[in-house]
Design brief:
- By secondary structure, the chain is α+β, with helices and mostly antiparallel strands.
- The chain has nine helices and 20 strands.
- The strands form five sheets. Strands 2, 6, 7, 8, 9, 10, 14, 15, 16 and 17 form a ten-stranded mixed beta sheet that branches. Strands 3, 11, 12 and 13 form a four-stranded antiparallel beta sheet that branches. A two-stranded parallel ribbon has the order 1-20.
- The radius of gyration is 40 Å and the shape is elongated.
Length: 405
């Protein structure tokens, strides 16, 4: 009779892995009388419980459903008058833009080039390669992107001093040729800024604003105070700059960007009166980097003088205000509560895992512990003789209950 072909070792190993997958594993309780290990085990459990109770549930409010980034609207209004060397300035002139949005600037210093007309004049010495000694240094028709106009090909004396620059066709005199500087900072620190903010959390259908209309004319006679007038969002410009940690005189000279941050942190499990805005102020442009610090821009005012189109070019330095709104709202929900509770109970098992690893790796009785912890039921398959079947079961190492080491 032919013998059946022997099974290949690889096939036997695959079948063994397949049947091992269907084995059932159950934890075995062993009491290890080691005080140091017991202290570590209870300490790890205590730290995990403290983390979930104090940080997750109390600080982070892990029992709540939350929403960040509320829908927000901001309206602003500036009031005040000031005077420079030559004129009185009101809100219509020193606030840009005038619409009252969340981003606006307040002029604090201007450099004005008066009575510019379209004609020929010397280029500014501050323009690269504008200086010349003869007409051959100036190419007719050439335009420098950092310059003020189109070169005519002539080298002419500068507005003042012995130097010469290339002549250009431009709005003349060019900036820096006859510029007059005027400061508006004398009364600017006393300007008041009203900042109206309304927020809405669509998930919870909750809305609130930072102005209360309980008293008629309340906003006409109040300024912001965190304790007594929290819902009077009228701030002095000087106070905003001071709370941002800046010197008003220096900031008004070079300009800068100040952020007004409004934060709404609302626990909707409490009454609506517990949801209040908080304000903070900080400078947003990097003052430590001289090249990029400060804030300025240019604009012009056009008019007709004796039939000639004329303009005044204004380089404006100012304090730009950016109103930034943040917010978060939370309300009790069963789903995050169950998830965090389940995570907490599961994490407590980290203590057992850590102590088991120490026992199996570092302690003197690690071999004995391993033999007690990992038992296999080696019950053989039933053997049958005729109509009778018997099973020989292996006896457990310790039939009296939980093992002790």
């Amino acid at each position: 009779m032919e013998e059946p072909p022997a099974r290949r070792p690889g096939a036997v190993g695959c079948w063994r892995c397949f049947w091992e997958f269907w084995n059932y594993e159950t934890p075995k309780v062993i009491v290890v009388k080691n005080r140091n290990l017991g202290i570590m085990y209870r300490g790890v459990q205590l730290l995990i419980l403290l983390y979930f109770i104090w940080y997750v549930f109390i600080i982070q409010k892990g029992y709540q459903e939350s929403e960040t980034g509320p829908e927000s609207s901001v309206l602003t209004k500036v009031k005040g008058v000031t005077r420079s060397h030559s004129k009185v300035w009101d809100v219509e002139e020193y606030v840009k833009p005038a619409e009252g949005g969340s981003v606006f600037s307040i002029l604090t210093r201007v450099e004005v080039t008066h009575s510019q007309t379209l004609e020929r004049c010397p280029e500014s010495l501050e323009v690269p390669h504008a200086a010349c000694s003869s007409d051959s240094d100036c190419v007719a028709g050439e335009m420098d992107m950092l310059g003020n106009g189109e070169r005519t090909g002539r080298c002419v004396p500068y507005y003042s001093g012995p130097g010469k620059t290339c002549e250009v066709t431009a709005w003349c005199p060019v900036e820096d040729g006859r510029t007059v500087s005027e400061s508006l900072g004398k009364m600017a620190a006393q300007f008041t800024i009203l900042i109206k903010n309304n927020i809405h959390f669509p998930r919870f259908g909750f809305s609130k604003g930072n102005v209360k209309g309980e008293k008629s004319g309340y906003l006409k006679g109040c300024t912001f105070n965190e304790t007594s007038d929290l819902y009077c969002p009228i701030f002095r410009l000087g106070s905003i700059v001071e709370q941002a940690g800046e010197n008003f005189t220096a900031l008004a000279e070079r300009g800068g960007v100040i952020g007004v941050i409004i934060n709404w942190n609302c626990n909707l499990d409490l009454p609506d009166s517990a949801c209040n805005p908080s304000y903070s102020f900080r400078r947003l442009d990097p003052k430590s980097i001289q090249v990029s610090s400060g804030y300025n821009y240019r604009f012009a005012k056009y008019y007709n003088c004796n039939g000639t189109n004329t303009r005044s070019l204004i380089k404006a330095y100012g304090i730009r205000i950016d109103v930034i709104v943040h917010g978060q709202a939370g309300k009790f929900s069963l789903i995050p509560t169950i998830i965090n509770l389940a995570t907490a109970l599961t994490s407590v098992g980290v203590g057992s895992f850590l102590c088991d690893w120490i026992l199996l790796t570092f302690l003197n009785k690690n071999n004995a512990y391993s033999a007690r912890k990992f038992d296999q039921d080696r019950t053989p398959a039933p053997s049958c003789s005729g109509n009778a079947c018997t099973t020989q079961a292996s006896s457990p190492a310790n039939p009296q209950g939980p093992g002790q080491l």
